[in-house]
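User: Okay, second chain of the day. Same drill as before: sequence in, structure tokens out.
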Amino acid sequence: MSGQESVSPTPEVHSPAPRPRGRVLHIHTAAGAGLPVQARDRVEARAGGGLVGDRYDARAGHWSPIKRRGDWLSLIEQEEIDRLRVSWGLALDPGETRRNITTEGIRLDDLLGRQFRIGEAICYGVRHCEPCTYLEQLLGREIIYPLVHRAGIRVEILAGGLISTGDPIHLADED
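Assistant: Same drill. Structure tokens below.
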């Protein structure tokens, strides 16, 4: 023997995949299609509907005549708004996106096809909320191309409750 002891390698430890977590940064509602959005500190989310006082909850929003799951509530990442400014030179305030909730610290694509909680409300990620020519017309700027697949998601509210700025966003099974 050479005098050296044999050392077994340290077993590799795999930690579980990080769980999507974030928070509500801004809340916006508008009373009707094309009307200015209003910043809100808190709002009631209605199961099967949208945010109380918002155009989509009142069925007074601008959308396709085909009603689909998730047409009543939309979310967008603050990180995508920041990317739009840095990469494309297009500065938008969170309310200008006309999405109801601006999030921070969570990839919304990770919530598609999953149940998650926003404040007291339980939601389900339905599909991307793609930019449209109507939004371009309201903004007076070309934003469709830079926001394709990056303009947020549409969600269905499964169980209503209060949503406030600063509230956590996390998978429902983490409760």
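The chain has a mean pLDDT of 83.

User: Thanks, on to the next one.
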